[in-house]
Amino acid sequence: MKKATPLLLAILFWACTGLATAQEPSVSLSLGYQWVTVSGSQDTYRSQVDEDDGLVLDQLRLRSTDGGELYDTLFLSAGGFGGASSGRLQLVASRRGTYNLRFGYNRFRRVSTLLDFANPLQASQVFPGQHTGDGLLDTFDLDVEVFPGKVISPLFAYRYARERSQGTTTIHLGQDEFLLSGRTFSRSHDFQAGLALHLGFLEATVVQGWRNQDGEVVFGLFPGAGGGNNSRPVLDRDVRLSSYGRKTSLDTDAPYTTAVVTARPWKFLRFSGRYVYQDPQADERLTEQAAGSLVSFKLQRFFQSFQESALAKTTAQNWRGEGKVELALPAGFALTAGYSERHRELSGWSLVQDLYLGAVNFSGERGADIAKLLAARTGIQREDKESTATLTSPTFGPVSFWASFATTDQQFLVAPDAREIVVPGNQGGRFTRQVDRWSGGLAFKLGGFSLGLDYRKDEADRLVLRTDVSDLQRLRARAAFRWGILELAATGEKLDAENNLPGNGYDASSKDWSAELRLNPWEPLTLWGSYGSFETDSAILVRRPETFETEASLYREDGTLAEAGLAYRRGEVAGEAGWSKFENQGTRGYDFSRLYARLELPLQQGLGLGFEAARSKYQQTGFSPADYEAKRYLFLLRYQK
Amino acid sequence: MRVALAIFASLALVALVSAEEPFAPCNSCHDDLAKAFASNPHALSAEKGAQVCQSCHGDGSQHAASGDPGLIEVPKGASGASQCLSCHGAGEGFVDPQGNAHLRAAVTCDACHTVHGAREHELLKAQPEQLCAPCHRNVAGQFRKPFAHKLERRGAMECVSCHNPHGGSGASSLKQSRTGETVCVSCHVDKRGPFAFEHGAAAVGSCTTCHQPHGSGNPKQLVRAQVDRLCLECHSGVGNPGLGSQPPSFHDLRSPRYRNCTTCHVAIHGSNSSPLFLR
């Protein structure tokens, strides 16, 4: 951030300098203060919506041309900072023949305080669950092309991402789980430099990039959590922790090279190719100390303290290459043939040293301290090769169509370390899979009516994961009709997927459709309403670990989404109101409704007022502690020139 | 009379061209368009002395002479797209004329862009999500679910954060990260790895093996509502098992501790110190 802030300020200063000389930039600014009230579960609200009291930059838009020597065009937009959960700033500027510049800054607040997910203490009404996070992710992007349109133009880019978070997690140690609290920090710098070649019939770019990522994770025992999740004694002893600390430091270097070429040697032939090579290397150090009264069935010991140190190094060299030829055929037909190949080779090495101190055996005999050393080597190799061919028709009157075939060969070689294997089987080996895909589509357009259909069928010879499908069929349809003041649009999709190998029994289907009606009875006024239905069912056989019995894992979503609204704009006066309700009667049922209204009124000389009110209401079927109702009011001062 | 008018219009056109007026003679009738177009990227990027209107509308002398709207070329639909692609059809980030799903479905450039009078950047008719939603209504609906990437009006994300509407190289026109990886890791940098012990679901599948990218009714945008169901669907040594081990029998699913797998297997995306993803 220390490096990125001057960059942000420099860019804004530069933009302002240009604005001083620019002719009548158009500006629109909307800034205000919002109040949020939540009744019910604050935790669920923060995990889903997460708006807060405070100043809000609703919208800033600035467009300027003729910025003297600095730019020909400049566009700045920003919104969402302050009480909103995410914000964005974008700046795009260019000067003909001199440069093109894009700058972006995004901020995301990421909160997770879930009540009923991965919460082993839910039955005891302990909320939220033990895995929580409250973090901020900031990303900066800068792309500059110098001398655009010249035969050779240099390219520069920089991306910075930083995430800071605090929260809670758990550690499984000594036959119990303990709640931890701590913080995580990670940041990534990514520099690029390259050249673009513009020859008209040939366009190419070659870029060399360097990415560095580092981070630190620090956790300690949550105050009062030494008793663990399991309150019952283990072998007549209370398992508990008196202290715990863990620190992890990570450093990753990843140089990469990207080359893109597009050539059109003749009017009827176009070739494009892309190649990316990356060679990341990650180094991690971990230290962990724990003290208390602990048990290990594996060592058949009680022990009083535990120390772990780990050193890991991982490389994951990978490349991806693809080429495509587009050929214009007689009578307006076109044929596209493409081939892509992707290769990734992960090689992991980890040295983990565990020390169990104060160990006694289960009969109470004091024994020697135990040291365990794990030097693990793992490897995963993945190769994907895909060939495609697509034939596209010209328009025959109102109709056009296309048909495509693709075949993908996948190969995976998974070499786990012996230490990873608890129950032998299915953790390593060579896996191959071939997927053939046929697809086709049709488009019809006549006057105000348009219709699009597309169909896809996948066939695979075998699976790699149990949820991979052997047969998939998907049909999609879209239709739109416009007649005078009326617009009607509808979409629908039906998908069937299965992998009915003996003992697997995977079968999934989904159907959804939605339709929207939009009316524009008077130029300033638009009314709309939409209704949609979705239905998803999936089933697969699973084996319960404790009994080895087989049962079906079922998942269902079955619901509707209804929306309606109106918008009015006449001169400087604008208003908008909308309502939506999502209902799901599936495995995790809920009702989620939203209601909002917004009004913009002029005052004088470009100044105006705005008001926004919104209500979100969430009700989870059979679990009322997660329900909430949130109301948000926002007052805005608006300026427009 | 018509011939005389045509000759007059042609002479006027030549005279105006020599005067290096970029919008002449069109601005004599379409002055409002010409004024607005002066700040348009097309006008700003035109070579000095070029006739800006003619580069897309062709020779307008007959139209100028008669005023007949049928005598001027107005690029739209498929033929209009061809005209756009003559400049915008080559190079990184531009349209694949044939590989583009939108063009194949007869959704041409003018469906989203307007050359004259665009209020949005990139000459868009409206903000990206407002343009995508009318055709992708079912996807737009997924963003209304309780756990979703936020596409609010002020939000930091929009459809084009992940998708390239002009035709990305991957499935669903997905963008790639700068390093050629899935676009997800551009923001979720901590999940990027590489890890010495990598979760097989990510290594041989993708993020969407477990997560729904647009939105979900399930926390963490997962594809299943219960953690143990999600994990067991791969980790069951029954039938044709594939990659994914059977959990040992002490994982008694009658106990909530074991129904919530990530209570212990916290580093489920990958770990550098724990082969079982315990830290």
Characterization of the model:
- The complex is a heterodimer of chains A (641) and B (279).
- Chain A is mainly β and 641 residues long.
- Chain A has 2 helices and 28 strands.
- Chain A has helices spanning 4-21, 42-48; strands at residues 26-40, 54-65, 73-79, 86-95, 99-113, 132-146, 152-173, 176-198, 202-221, 240-266, 269-278, 281-296, 301-328, 334-357, 360-361, 370-392, 399-415, 429-446, 449-460, 471-483, 486-499, 506-522, 525-543, 550-570, 573-584, 590-602, 607-620, 628-640.
- Chain A has a 28-stranded antiparallel sheet that branches.
- Chain A is globular, with a radius of gyration of 30 Å.
- Chain A starts with a helix and ends with a strand.
- By secondary structure, chain B is mainly alpha-helical.
- Chain B has 3 domains: 17-71, no CATH class; 90-173, no CATH class; 191-271, no CATH class.
- Chain B has a two-stranded antiparallel ribbon with strand order 1-3. Chain B has a two-stranded antiparallel sheet with strand order 2-4.
